[in-house]
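Researcher: I'd like a candidate sequence for this fold, 62 residues long. If you have to choose between options at a position, lean toward the conservative one.
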């Protein structure tokens, strides 16, 4: 699992056995999930890039 803080959000990537690939989840500063991937990624680094793009579409948190 990879974790990164970006624009006030916590980004997490992890392997998904059912999807047979990596996925991401994005949490706000209170710990609530605000976004997640819908399709699997073959590489964890690509899932992180997808999470960064999704976080850019969210309003920035302080």
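Model: Candidate sequence:
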């Amino acid at each position: 699992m990879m974790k990164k803080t970006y624009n006030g959000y916590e980004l997490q990537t992890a392997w998904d056995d059912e999807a047979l690939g990596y996925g991401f989840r994005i949490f706000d500063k209170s710990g609530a999930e605000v976004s997640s991937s819908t399709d699997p990624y073959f590489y964890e680094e690509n899932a992180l890039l997808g999470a960064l793009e999704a976080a850019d579409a969210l309003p920035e948190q302080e």
